[in-house]
Design brief:
heterodimer, A: 12 helices, B: alpha/beta, binds guanosine-5'-triphosphate, binds potassium ion, binds magnesium ion
């Protein structure tokens, strides 16, 4: 049972309509059912799907689809446009502080891709914007997390600030920023430990780091394969930290990536980058239109 | 809720719960249809009478026999366990926990650092080795994982350890060259220890949605997966896709991961898992009952 794209999904409904001449309200309803299934199969959260279907259905019933000679294509067009709009028109850039250094904090669940993305972002800032970032190893919990970032720093030939794993992340952040100022780094990228959004103690720790570091950007790193839980995670991180952007990782896989819509819908912050591989140069801007087509399987 | 009738609205709510748990829309539809039949046949009218039927049905699907969750440990000679999966799901951590579990069972355990690719992967496994008190066989970062495996198998044989657990680099199932590399690693194991690997454990992250099915299919095909470890169940994700995987591919879940600490690994218990799927609703119900 491979997942079908929206076009195939609509096939049956369309065959039924053809020859009748006119699209009925029931036909639109049937097509919306297929849209719903396509989105659920792509991992868009079911509550987000409900809202989305309601709004698209209204549009479809409004005019275009009802009058169209190619209702299937019209539905796909409307759905595609609405999804693209939902994920935010333009691709975004990373913040710049008025007074350097710009501080960026990476946060998210365990294994989402924070450490890798920290290195990728540093590489991106240097290559595309001529910046001189410093990386900060503030994950004191995961075995060899510091070593991982240091290895990546070596690959990049960039400094990694660390105080070992016996100093609190708050203190690490504080000293790192002072050091960055001293050494004239224009970006400070803080890698934090993965944590569950329901872990009060560790979420509190992030809030303390935020208070000290006063980040210009808090990026929530989300695995593109995430399922229905994406809304809980994103909502919770956003409530507790006010994230400013999202990075969607592991998009080089074959997941449809419906989490992109869920996360965007609940945080209302832009998806800024897409992780496209394990290597440090595999970070790309996020393109909402491509993502919409991917989610719909076309 | 307690005194609600089993009606269309009830089934819609049930559908939402299961879809929200990542069971997958196709499997959910099949389950709901089955349940509707059951309700008709047994003439069930009240939601409280249908709850045990649902739990029973799901648990049955997940765990056909008691032994489903047991590891295939050799009583005579060495057991080799290969651990595979996509990036960041919890393979290395699970190996640490599993080593501890086996050691507490009185087994001598050795680990093979088969992830020679990811930055810090070898050091991460070494920390776990120290924590648990078991040896780790490794080579340098960047070396051939099949060569590491060969070394580890020789070391394990010559030291006569009971269980060798092999870590591998995370890889997305659509990367053909990386899947080929994994097959090569498995072939080395097969060649060096004729009956091995005795278990190929696919680690799945409970947070993952429908892509887990594709992971199970592809890893299953290339490495003949014998069991699943479902990690990160300590969060709010339910991992319902394992229902669909069991239904379609018949791969049993053997362990669940419930945290980052050494003892946060438990043998899979189908009833507990199913309870987890409906936990939120059940707790809400209880609260209402107390308030009443
Ligand atoms: N294929 C692919 N793999 C990725 C991508 N980003 C990260 N990874 C891999 O995902 C795994 C986890 O990445 P990490 O950067 O360690 O994740 P993390 O969020 O820092 O993990 P914790 O610190 O343990 O919470 C590693 O194997 C990475 O190589 C991506 O865009 N594509
Ligand atoms: N909350 C929670 N975190 C877990 C669990 N299992 C693993 N983790 C965390 O998930 C992250 C990734 O775990 P790893 O063991 O490095 O995953 P991996 O599959 O080996 O990753 P790669 O080798 O990069 O593909 C780490 O931060 C672990 O501490 C679990 O059951 N619950
Ligand atoms: K993950
Ligand atoms: Mg990390
Ligand atoms: Mg690993």
């Amino acid at each position: 049972m491979a997942f079908e794209g929206l076009a195939e999904r609509l096939q049956d409904t369309l065959t039924k309509i053809r020859g009748k001449g006119k699209v009925s309200e029931q036909d639109v309803k049937d097509m919306m059912r297929e849209v719903r299934l396509a989105l659920l199969e792509a991992d868009v959260n079911f509550k987000v799907v409900k809202q989305f279907i309601a709004s698209v259905k209204e549009k479809a019933l409004g005019q275009e689809v009802m009058k169209s000679l190619t209702p299937g294509q019209m539905v796909i067009k409307v759905v595609n446009e609405e999804l693209t709009a939902l994920m935010g028109g333009e691709q975004s850039k990373i913040a710049v502080a008025n007074k350097p250094p710009t501080v960026v904090m990476m946060v998210g669940l365990q294994g989402a891709g924070k450490t890798t993305t920290t290195a990728k972002l540093a590489n991106h800032l240097r290559k595309k914007q001529n910046r001189t970032p410093m990386l900060v190893a503030a994950d004191i919990y995961r075995p060899a997390a510091i070593k991982q970032l240091e290895t990546l720093g070596k690959q990049l030939n960039m400094p990694v600030f660390s105080l070992g794993d016996q100093v609190s992340p708050v203190e690490i952040a504080k000293q790192a920023i002072a050091k960055a100022k001293e050494d004239h780094h224009d970006y400070v990228l803080i890698d934090t430990a993965g944590r569950l959004h329901i872990d009060e103690e560790l979420m509190g720790e992030l809030q303390e780091v935020k208070e000290i570091a006063k980040p210009d950007e808090i990026l929530l790193v989300v695995d593109a394969m995430t399922g229905q839980d994406a809304v809980n995670v994103a909502e919770s991180f956003n409530e507790q930290l006010d994230v400013t952007g999202v990075v969607l990782t592991k998009l080089d896989g074959d997941t449809r990536g419906g989490a992109a819509i869920s996360v965007k819908a609940v945080t209302n912050t832009p998806i800024k980058f897409a992780g496209m591989g394990e290597k440090i140069d595999q970070l790309e801007p996020f393109y909402p239109d491509r993502m919409a087509s991917r989610i719909l399987g076309m | 809720y307690r005194y609600r009738k089993v009606d269309e609205e009830f089934f819609e709510e049930l559908e939402d719960i299961l879809i929200g748990a990542d069971v997958g829309v196709n499997t959910v539809m099949t389950l709901i249809d089955d349940l509707k039949d059951e309700v008709r046949i047994r003439n069930i009218k009240d939601t409280k009478d249908i709850q045990p039927v649902i739990s029973e049905k799901l648990a049955e699907l997940l765990q056909k026999e008691e032994e489903d969750a047991a590891l295939n440990i050799q009583t005579d000679g060495m057991t080799v366990i290969l651990v595979v999966g996509v990036n960041g799901v919890g393979k290395t951590t699970t190996i640490g926990k599993l080593a501890n579990h086996l050691k507490q069972d009185g087994k001598s355990v050795m680990l093979a650092a088969g992830d020679t690719f990811r930055a810090g992967a070898i050091e991460q496994l070494e920390v776990w080795g120290e924590r648990v008190g078991v040896d780790v066989i490794k080579q340098q970062e960047g070396s051939d994982p099949a060569a590491v495996m060969y070394d580890a198998l020789q070391a394990a044989k010559s030291r006569g350890v009971d269980v060798l657990i092999c870590d591998t680099a995370g890889r997305l199932q659509n990367k053909v060259n990386l899947m080929n590399e994994l097959e090569k690693v498995k072939r080395v194991i097969e060649r060096e220890v004729p009956s091995a690997p005795h278990e190929v454990l696919l680690v799945l992250d409970a947070t993952t949605g429908q892509n887990a099915m594709s992971q199970a299919k592809t890893f299953g095909k290339s490495t003949d997966v014998s069991g699943i470890v479902l990690t990160k169940l300590d969060g709010t994700a339910k991992g319902g896709i394992v229902l669909a995987i069991r239904h379609e591919l018949d791969i049993p879940v053997k362990f669940v991961g419930l945290g980052e600490k050494v003892d946060d690994l438990q043998p899979f218990n189908a009833e507990q898992f199913v309870y987890g799927l409906f936990k939120d609703i059940l707790e809400e119900q209880e609260k209402e009952e107390i308030e009443d």
